[in-house]
Records
---
Amino acid sequence: PFDTLRRLRHETPVRYDSNRNCWDVFRYEDVQRILKDSKTFSSERGAGAGSTILFMDPPKHKQMRDLVSRAFTPKAIQELTPRIQSIAEQLLDAVTEDAMDITSDFATPLPVIVIAELLGAPKEDREQFKRWSDILVESADDLSDEAFRRITDKRMKAMEELYGYFRNIMGQRAAEPQDDLITALMNAEIEGEKLTEKEIVSFCVLLLAAGNETTTNLITNGVRVLTEMPELQERLFQSPDLIPAFIEEVLRYYPPIVAIGRKATDQVQIGDQTIEKGAQVISWVGAANRDESRFVEPDDFRLDRKPNPHMTFGFGIHFCLGAPLARLEGKIAFQALLNRYQNLARASSGSIQPIQSSFVFGVKNYPITMH
Ligand code: HEM
């Protein structure tokens, strides 16, 4: 999609899409301004999404963010390093041939297991966890009303089950606190205010929905880069300290999230267009990340890009809370892969299915060989 996004950024940097009834914004500067100005560009959505931090505006957003940040600190994440390493090694130990599907064998289970452990879900519930998180991010294969209704029904059912599940765990933790995120969220407090049960449960569900598919796509997209530019493999093997720079460049170049939505709370001018109050505005991060006014040779993949101010984790008050976790998982995943295998290559057999969502850049499967 990046050729199309480049063309649109040049030809119609701010445009109205009458099919989808929304405004599209493609330039770095404009995207950044929108994400910065949470007053004019609101994150609030219709009923039902009310207790999810992602869809809150200030002042409620800040209150909630302060509370969950207490439990979800970069330090707490850093401490997961040895566990994530051992999960990554176990997954690769289970691959006995010199071929695998990087998506299903590695990139999908890794973040699911990590998040399940972080939350404190018992091991035996992992399979169920994976099914729930798949349903949450599943999109309709076709655009028929029928397909849409089927997906929505499935999603509602999974949500209900997840709510019940987390409510049950909370009950157990109330009686017997554990060293896990759920207990930490139950104890987090600011000026005597605690999170409600509904807020905690919604936050846990959000972590599954926001954290799993995105991290899966970060890993798969990174492997895709390594197979498209095999010379990088030797380079990273020789200098593993370049892996974090590699991860940042993957995030910029093949971003797991390509677009971020907002709603205009007022009439507002962007570029030479006037956006009406109440309009949906889509910020195309996938286009902004390759804006030549901000990035030198934006369509080249460069390990020496410094700084690398991509906006794949968003910008401003909603900046991804899970970024430290995603970066850590990405780093560990590539350390493990590059340590073990010399030549990662795309398998010649099997076609690759892109994920059917214009907001996501990723594939459902990516068969590789390694030696
Ligand atoms: C918010 C991207 C991984 C939890 C966001 C936003 C983006 C994003 C773009 C901002 C959305 C907006 O402004 O409307 C990503 C990408 C990831 C990733 C690309 C992986 C490469 C994770 C993980 C977690 C997580 C692993 C947690 C386990 C969250 C939460 C928010 C968020 C809780 C809401 C923050 C707020 O509204 O204040 N993420 N994310 N994300 N992300 Fe991530």
Note: Residues 68 and 162 are 19 Å apart (CA to CA).
---
Amino acid sequence: MTHAIAYRAAILHSLADPAKVGLDASYAYYEDGVLVVADGHVRDIGPADTVLARQPADLEVIRFENQLITSGFIDTHIHFPQTEMIASYGEQLLDWLNNYTFPEERKFVDAAHAARVATLFLDELLRNGTTTAMVFGTVHKASVEAFFAESDKRNMRMIAGKVMMDRHAPDYLLDTPESGYADSKALIERWHNKGRQLYAVTPRFAPTSTAEQLSAAGKLLAEYEGVYLQTHLSENKQEIEWVRSLFPERKGYLDVYDHFGLLGERSVFAHAVHLEQEECERMGESDSVISFCPTSNLFLGSGLFDLPRMEEHRIRVGLGTDVGGGTSFSMLQTIAEAYKIQQLQQHKLHPIKALYLATLGGARALRLENKIGNLEVGKEADFLVLDLHATPLMDARMNNAHNLFEQLFVLMMLGDDRAIAETYIYGDCRYRRDQRQTAV
Ligand code: GUN
Ligand code: ZN
């Protein structure tokens, strides 16, 4: 057993969805709190005097002044191979894919390239306080091998999968129903539940898979307990029309996935910006999940996601950056854009609700709420030390904030990677800002 360490600072974490239990019961805040970590798990948490009184007197205590501990951020949709093409100019989804994305993804035929980008990508997640993500690879099996090898080395809880794509992309990026199935199967056997790694069957989106391939994806889900599905859904109006023309026998976009058995409690659909009423109902009924990707929806001009509407249908929603369609790795920046998207629709996004979406809500979206998402006793110790005064402007504004909600809101509107002082994975510090390096 590793020895326990206590971290003393202000501590804030999410306990439940404010929409379900009300604001006050949805979070815990300790102005002078202690988090005790041992063997990669949370052993104790609470007000400093209470926790220290019940722990051994010789407990090692690390104290942070003016900083806030919270649980790690969870990004429910991101593409690691698009790291070096983020911020590509001028196009909406389909042209953006053809002109920028596919040529970039071609580079991942080279395993050394994939390993280098996986390293850069995971470092960037840590710098931004993201401790778990649901990640697309490319069509190349080796891209996902490289990703899991790096993630496993850092002991990060990650979900990833090889893209299945057998039509409507350049030849150099296509697999076949048979090879897509066999490669995915081999990756599942090797990586699913190895350490903290989990596998997601990953048909890119309906237009780039034949019926045979979508059927193979459904077969994999039926064959392996606990494996996820990730794909894209109703992101862009032209895309939706294209799906209708490719699958005229289906009721609509979601029905294509439904037909092949791809809906369910571990199925995460990115975007879902333009869902019909009937599709919302089917999402809720099948307990399928949406990843809301604000910076991407704005950057690619896709549309405005209506969060309250999805909640009315009892659909679980997580937040995603969708890099490189999204423009930031920072979940704080992602929250800021989510707030503005709700503003444009006359909806409010309370900072405590935003914290929920970026942590426990993300964990619930990924059915990992028993392991991660907050700092309750027994959870895996993925947590952050946040610097609320990271820049001169944040410092000045924070000193003019009068309560916790205001402070948290300022953090979310002005904060980014500069506000992440330290990132802990399974109890180990894997990133410390002031050393400007990652300890792996
Ligand atoms: N739809 C299909 N592929 C992609 C992708 O790589 N990014 C986004 N944002 N949407 C997609
Ligand atoms: Zn995406």
Note: The chain has two domains: 5-71+373-438, 73-349.
---
Amino acid sequence: SNDDSVVTLLDYGAGNVRSVRNAIRHLGFQIKDVQTPKDILNARRLIFPGVGAFAPAMDVLNNTGMGEALCTYIQDDRPFLGICLGLQLLFESSEENGPVGGLGLIPGVVGRFDSSKGFRVPHIGWNALQITKDSEILDDIGNRHVYFVHSYRAMPSKENKDWISSTCNYGDEFIASVRKGKVHAVQFHPEKSGGKQFITHAFLYLQHVDCEHDYISAPLYVGLSVLRRFLLPKSSLTEVIACLDVRTNDEGDLVVTKGDQYDVREHAEKNEVRNLGKPVELAGQYYKDGADEVSFLNITGFRDFPLGDLPMLQVLRSASENVFVPLTVGGGIRDFTDSNDRYYSSLEVASEYFRSGADKISIGSDAVHAAEEYLKTKVKTGKSSIEQISRVYGNQAVVVSIDPRRIYLNDPSDVPFKSIRLTKQGKENLLVRPFTNLKSVIEYIFTGCSWFSQLCQVQMEKNMPGINARADGGLLVINGGREGRPIGAYELAKAVEELGAGEILLNCIDCDGQGKGFDVDLIKMICDAVSIPVIASSGAGAVEHFTDVFSKTNASAALAAGIFHRKEVPIRSVKEHLLKEGIEVRI
Ligand code: 1PR
């Protein structure tokens, strides 16, 4: 096409390209989708937002002839913008499920971040760039931060130096963007970095077909990189996440609700589902207020099949039109057979979420089943939802939501799980609950465990007259707290990491909705157990609670719901407070 308002998009259907599409349309451009290799060769401007894992993407490119067309297009120095995997595929090969050969246009191997250096992998979050070469698309970035989500990265070397336009630091210095002539690619997500201006710049550039190449000379490059290593922060920013628990109320409308220890019904006359607003509106509001990420949890997804739950998919589609930070969606991701005997794999369910605008999906109940199976057999079958989805979409796209409920013990050896002693603060956290006999709380574990609860019921009744009043129905983790399973939070976290989860969303049923602070003891235990990022959740009630969790644990993000829904504290105040306390956040 000769029309300057048309952009060609290479979307091979493996993931969420919706936000890129939305960003492009937002800017008044039309999209032409690549159907055949010829569409690539005929493109005037081509955007390749690679999604998913390296090997399946290369398979598609090789099997369709698109890989060859891409190589020709890029070698001809025609306007190109690759995003994320769209950068990695340009390299010679990747270690992701590999080695797997890439397009081989840029020298170097895409390798995994080294988690032994104490950095959590995947690298998920906002980080600063060190710009090393003039590149119009980076013009507006300056000291601003951009959003990354990846486990693999390419590293600068002598051989690829002439390609690099910026690097970033996360344990190692890695390549954040490349540019040569009219060919650009970025490891970060411009469409998720809080604004459409990066994409605008990409287009502005792509319209100036005669731009000159302006490389920074080699000595200056080296000098800058030395300084950069010295001066710039080495890890990514801490994040504040707004969470929307979504379900249908008794009138059949999809509403944002909020539980009190997972109980979402008003205990007034009508016993209604608490209604705190409309999902799309609130998500848009939180994005404007500075949320670094927005999570939707379809909290009845365990019983209603999510693909039958079209309003939820619609919520995602609409939200992704106005929210330009990452969206995570959870609820009901599992294998499912519908009433017509049609079978859907968890991968299909997740794919539908990704297609509708999710950047990450979050698995709750099904992750517990998978972990139990894995701990029992010690065999990775490759069939669990975690394994299947992470293989196709990458680990960074798979979050596991852990919903532990406390059990109080007199003796840690009473249980086959790891337990930890409550600190003073942990106990303070408890005081909101109707306990009468705190003296006997010496240890606790996190689990949900039906057989265990029966076993301990008698003992608990004896020792803890208070707790049974609240622990009605057992000690629970799955199906929104309706069923307990015999596995501890620690064991669960380690197992799902081994199965391929890229991030943990750590709730705490006891603290949920209480506004008394995060469960720092629990969060610390899980952060120390795994090397993937941990999102601390449940209990935020004041700005100090955020500083507390970030200063006492290695959580990479803190998630809150009620405090924002009830408009008690705006996201901005949380971030200003964190900054004042010396904790780096994106403002
Ligand atoms: O099991 O894969 O279908 O996923 C279901 C998902 O829904 C899980 O992630 C589970 O955590 C969530 N969920 C299920 N039931 C409830 C409920 O509230 N009845 N909500 C529920 C979980 C908890 C938090 C909450 C924080 C912060 N929401 O995410 O947002 O506790 O709240 P606060 O700041 O107000 O304290 P599956």
Note: Residues 243, 245, 258-259, 262, 264, 297, 299, 301-302, 330-333, 362-366, 401, 403, 478, 480-481, 507, 512-513, 537-540, 560-563 surround 1PR (CB under 6 Å).
---
Amino acid sequence: MSAAQDSSPSTSEQPFSAESYFATQPPPPTLDADVRNVRSFVSQQVAVGRKVVLVTSGGTTVPLELNVVRFLDNFSAGTRGATSAEYFLRAGYAVIFMHRQHSLQPFSRHYSHSTNPFLDFLELEDAPQEQTDERTVIDHARPIITVHPSDPEHLRSVLSAYKAVQKAGTLHSVTFVTVNEYLWLLRAVSKELHLLGRNAMYYLAAAVSDFFLPREKMSEHKIQSGKGSLILEMDQVPKTLKPMVDEWTPEGFIVSFKLETDTTLLVPKARASLERYGHQVVIGNELHRRKFEVVFVSRSSSSSGIVGYDKPGFEETWLRIDEKASAGGKEIEEDIINELVTRHLSWIKSVNT
Ligand code: 9Z3
């Protein structure tokens, strides 16, 4: 019987460290190919001296069976990540967009199945006798197809930004589905970006599961319902920020997100995270207000930043946009990325001071 169906306590006494996790959980089969592609993308950016940001986006799944029928999922449509990637590109960064398969992506997010569905732009019209319009499908036997965007200017600007990015080759996508794939990719991509030193930024907006089922505890086949209720005991996902800061990419500018449903927890939890892991910025967001306000928490410039040497001080900066402005198309990610670009630049400059 597998532990997934077993109601007895977990046999693992120790929580997984990052080291024991990677020593026991298998890498995804596409990892080597993904890393080769990332390496080639990074070397192109290094050659032209461009800064690179790794944007993680979307939720991770936790499969419950090896032949997976059921899984736990994490909330996130990938809006924050996809929107932010566009603003980073606009700011001149190259972007590695590491996202949950089928979650929102930069540019196409404006025309996803839920926002401006593609088919709503198309009209069928009777074919004219003479057909010269380049946009039409010329088939006199059938009605022609014409494109009618509700807001042509918007479509034009999204399309031209998308084409410019394609031409410049500054966007590279990598996909994950499970939390295991996410963790292996995060480690591998961070190590590749290590080459860029302070010119690399990490923008960790993916909603990552805190719990998972180790492979050795998973049922091979679909969990059967014959035994009544299902009791699952899951292990804690190892904290990856610590090895990121200490080993994988010590010079990188690392920004993590903290999601809470109770606003009063945002600042204390963000501070605790900075104190524990020693990275640069935690952006706190409350579930329902995340499109209108976020809080940047970082160590205050007066503190040494050396944990244990003095009690680090913290500073908070709230960014807010008006709900009316948001309804009119203003996106808080524009302000988040502006603020981060400024902070990243001073982080790069501070190496010589
Ligand atoms: C976030 O907090 C993101 O901003 C959202 C974006 C997931 C809220 P959407 O894709 O949502 O725009 O719909 N991401 C980080 C979530 C997370 O897993 N944080 C961990 C935590 O809060 C720590 S790193 O404990």
Note: The longest strand covers residues 253-260.
